[in-house]
Amino acid sequence: MMRQAVENQSRRQSEARRICGEPFVRHMATGNDTVARYVSLSALEADYPRVKRFPRSLRLLLEAALRNIDAGDSAQVAELGAMLDWQPGASGSLPVWVGRILLQDASGIPLLHDLAAMRAAAVQRGHDASRIAPCLPVDLVIDHSVVTDRYGDATAAADNLLLEYRRNQERYAFARWAGQAFPNLRIFPPGSGIVHQVNLEQLATGVVVRDGWIFPDTLLGTDSHTTMINGIGTLGWGVGALEAEIALLGEALQIAVPKFVEVRLTGSRRPGITATDIALHVTAHLRRHGMVGKILEFAGEGARALTVPDRATIANMAPEYGATMAFFPMDSESLSYLRKRGHAEDHIELVRRYAAEQGLFGFPDVEEADYDETVEINLDHVARSVAGPFRPQQLLMLSDVPRSFPGDAGPRPVQLVAKPALSNGDVVIAAITSCTNTANPGGMICAGLLASEAVRRGLKVSPHVKTVLAPGSRDVTAYLARLGLLDSLTAIGFYPAAYGCSVCVGNTGPLAPGVEEAIAAHSLTVSAVLSGNRNFEGRIHHAVKANYLASPALVVAYALAGSTLKDLDVEPIGTAGDGASVYLRDIWPSDESVAAFVSQVDGDAQGVAAKSERRPGGDAATERPEWTAIASQTGDCFQWDKHSGYFVRPPFFETDTGARLKSIEGARILAVFGDDITTDHISPVGEIARHSDAADYLRGVGVEVADFSTFGARRCNHHVMMRGTFANPRIRNLINAVGDGPMSRSARDGGVKSLFKVAMENVSDGVTNIVFAGERYGSGSARDWAARGTALLGISAVVARSFERIHRSNLVLMGVLPVQISDGSDLDSFLWTGEERIDVTFDPSLDEIMPKACVVVRRAGNIVIKLDGCAKIETAAEWRYLRAQGVLPHVLGRALSG
C-alpha cells in the first residue's frame, strides 16, 4: 500500500510538471486589436477527461493554480497533481489563488495596520519598506463605522455621515496614508455603500484582462458574506484578515480539500414569496444538513429561474448555513446584470466567449458533474417567514413568531409602561438594512409598495419604534425616489439614515427617547426586526434580546404592527383611518405590481449606464470632498504617535520565531463554554462599556468616558482589544459559581475576577491558558480579533467539539492550537472548579493532517478526565504557521527573503 501511494505521488508530480509549461495556453482576442493568453481547460480535458466532470468551482481553482504555479516548487507541483486526480471523497489540501482582495474597514484597517507594522519591522532589519506591498489589487470599502444615531427625518443620513467623520478622523487619516503608501490599493470612502453591494454592483467584472492574461474574476474578502458575489458566477468567499494578508502578499492560501455539494432547487416560488423567504428557508435546511466548510453549487430549474439579485440574496447567507461558498454558475442572467450595471457590450461579449470556451457558462445538466453529495430543496415549500429570535437558522412561519418569543413574556399578560407606553414583545427597532436584501430591487420595491398602501389606509408606526432605512447603495434611494416609493417609506418613518452596515452589525445607536430606560426599569423583553443576516443575542442592540430577520416588506409590516406577539397571518396589523381593521394580506403587493416596478428600475439602470453617468469600479475617493480633505501622513512608513489611543504598534512581529512547537503541560482552565459561542461573543464588538477592563485602561491613559468610542474604532490598539476579548455581557463561563458575563476564577486565590485579569495572572505566573467549548465554536462573522485577542490572552489551545471554518483557521494563524474532541458524556456532567490543570499531548514533529491529540484534565494531581481527539490542523501550511508562532511572523519572513 505504501509503495502504491509513493508511485501515485510520483505519477501525479510527473503529470503536473508536464503541464506547468505552456502546452495548454491559448490566445483570445480581447478587443482593440489586443490578444491575451489563457489557460485552456477544454484543451486540458483532452488529456485529462476527468476535468470535464469537475464542479465549476473546482475548475476555477484549477485554472488559477495552472496560471500561478511555480514549476520549481515541489509542494505546489504535488498539489496540482492531486487536483488533477480529484474525485468525490478526495482529501488533502489545495491552493487558492485569486485575482483580487476585498476589505471592509472593520478588518481592512487593521490589516493595513499590520502592513504598516511589517514595513517598520522590515526597515528595522535593514530592508527597504517597499518590500512589503500588496501583490494583488485591493479594494477597501469603508462601511462598518457609521452609526444610526439620527433617524426618522430628512437629514438623518447627512447627520450620521458627519458624525462618522468626526468620530473616525484618526482612523480615516491612517487609511488616507495607506492609500498613498501602498500600490494596488483603492479606497471607497464612507457613504459609498455596503462592501458586498459595492462589490456586486461596481467591482464584479466576470473576467479580468491583466498582465497579458485573461482569467476569471475571483477574490477573497475579509467579511464572511463575501459569498454574495457567488450570485453572479464569481468565485469568492470570506476569510479573516490574516488569511487575506497571505494572499495579498503573493502566497497561495492553502485549504483542506472541501466537500463539493450540489444543491438542487426544484419547484418554483409561490405568489407573495420574496427572495428573503427563500434565503431563510435554504439557511434552515442546509444548517440542519451540515455544511460547515463545504463548497455548494446550486443547480436545477428552480435555481435557473432566479434573478441575479435573488441568487445573491441566497449566496450572501452562506456563512449562516456554514458553507464556504454558495456558487451559482454564470449564465445569461449574469450577463444581463453586468449590462444593467454599466459594462460595455464588447466586455460582456468577452465574458460570454471566455466562459463558454472554458466550460463555465450555464447551469450543468443533471449528472453532468461529480459532487460529494447532492441536497434537494423544493421551492414549492417556501412560505412567508422570518428567522429568530437568536439565530439565522431558526426559521419561523409568521404564526410561529409569538410562540418563539424568549422566556414567558409571550404567553403571559403584559403590563403597559408609561412614558413611553411599552410592553413585552414590542418592536423597538425596525431596520431595512444590510446588503443581503437591499441589493435586491424586488425586495425593496415590495417594501415600498406595502408602505404606500399602508399610508393610503392611514396606518402609522408607534413612536417607540426606531425606523431605519440603511441601503447598501445610493442607487436604492435613487430608484425608490424615481418610482415615488421613497415618499411612502418616509411618511411612516423610514428615512434614509446611512449607506453602510449600521444596524446589521450592531451600529444601531440609541433607541427612541425613554425606551432604554423603560426596558431597564421594568426588565422588559423587546424585539428588533431587520432585513439583515445575523441576529445573535446582544448583536443588534444591548437592550434588545429578541431579534428577527425578515424581508424589507416584513420589516415595514412589523413596524406598523408594533409587536412580535402578533400573529400577522390572522391578527390585524393595525387600524385604518376610518377605524376598520387592516390585515397584512390587505396591504401586501401583488407579484405583478412588484415586477412592473422592477422592470422600470432595470430600464432606468441601462439608460443611466448608456449615458456613462455611472461606470463600474471608478475612483470613488475622488467623488467625496470630505474624504480628500482629511489631513494625513505621507511617505512609505507610518509614524506612530505614542499618545494615540487608536493606533499602537502591534506586538505580533516580536514573537520568538525560534520557539519550538510542543505539547501543552499544566495549563490553567480560563473558561468553559457551551454550544454556539459565536465570534460576536469572543471578539471585542460594540460600545466600550464604562465599567470594563478596556474602560479602565482608557481612563488610565487619559481618555474621557465620552471619547471611549467603540471596539470597532479601536481595533488597532491591542491594549484595548485584548481587554475586550470574551467581554460580551451575554457570555456564560461554566466554571462553578462564576456567573454570567466575562468572568473567570483565579487559580491564585480562588476569587471571581474578570476573565482578562485571570488570564493576565496566569501569563504573569508563566502558565498558559486553555478554553473548552461545545459545538460550532466560532460561528458568526469573520472577526480576526476573536483569534488575535485569544492569542494575546495567553490561550495556547481551544478544545471544542466542533469549530466553524473561519475562526478555526484564524486560531491557527495566530498560533493557537484548535483541538477537536469527540462527543462524550464526560464533560457534560463535569463540575469545573477553576483548580484544574490541563495537558494536551500531540506529536508536533508531524506534518500529518489532523493528528491524534489527547486532553488530560487533572485536579490536585489526579486525572479526572481523559479525552481523545485530534489537533484540528487541516493543511501542511498550517503546521508551518504554528511553528512560526503565527502567520504574521511567517509572511514577514517570506516577504523579506524574497
Descriptive key words:
898 residues, alpha/beta, Aconitase, domain 3, Aconitase, domain 4, seven-stranded mixed beta barrel, five-stranded parallel sheet, 32 helices, 32 strands, globular
Could you explain how this protein is built, in words?
This protein has 898 residues and is of the alpha/beta class. Among the domains are: 2-94, no CATH class; 386-589, 2-Layer Sandwich (Aconitase, domain 3); 664-897, Aconitase, domain 4. 35% of the residues lie in helices and 17% in strands. The strands form 10 sheets. The chain has a 7-stranded mixed beta barrel. It has a 5-stranded parallel β-sheet with strand order 6-5-4-9-10, sandwiched between helices. Helix 29 (785-792) links the parallel strand 27 (769-772) and strand 28. The radius of gyration is 27 Å and the shape is globular. The two termini are 39 Å apart. Mean pLDDT is 91; it is low at 608-615.
Describe the structure in brief.
By secondary structure, the chain is of the alpha/beta class. The chain contains 32 helices and 32 strands. Among the domains are: about 1-95, no CATH class; about 385-590, Aconitase, domain 3 (2-Layer Sandwich); about 665-895, Alpha-Beta Barrel (Aconitase, domain 4), CATH 3.20.19.10.
